[in-house]
Automatic annotation (TrEMBL):
UniProt keyword list: Cell membrane, Membrane, Transmembrane, Transmembrane helix, Transport
Organism of this sequence: Micromonospora sicca
Listed transmembrane segments: 12-29, 60-84, 96-116, 128-149
Source organism superkingdom: Bacteria
Protein name: MFS transporter
Amino acid sequence: MLVGEFGARLPLLVDAGSYLALVAAGLLIRTRRGGSRRADPAATGPGTATTGWRLRRDPLLVVMVGTLAAVIGAVGAINVIEVFFIRETLGSSTTVYGVVTGAWTLGIVLGGWLFARLARRLVDDGALLGAGLALLGGCCLAVLASAAVP
């Protein structure tokens, strides 16, 4: 929307400011990494192997991460051509493109907020995964519906 109203300079400055804000936010995050590890004398001994966490050991998590990566990759690829679809194929202005992109972002934010409320009620990992996959399917349906615009 800013490009449609003010040209490219102002949106690029706003974008640069948002990236600087992300860097500042990242520097303000406190974590508990580092420091010394205390070994539990009862858990260590000859023949005791300590192995780190591995993603492939949790089949439910493997499915979730793989599906999420595939959907993000597909939607990300569609985002590349979305500007040409909206601007050239549909003949819309840069402002309309901004409204469409803003509506998508607002939908993601509101959906995430609503899903967080629902996720607190789901105690079973399988149910939580199913709900997450349903949300990903909804995103895919929204992209598919945009392709049906005459």
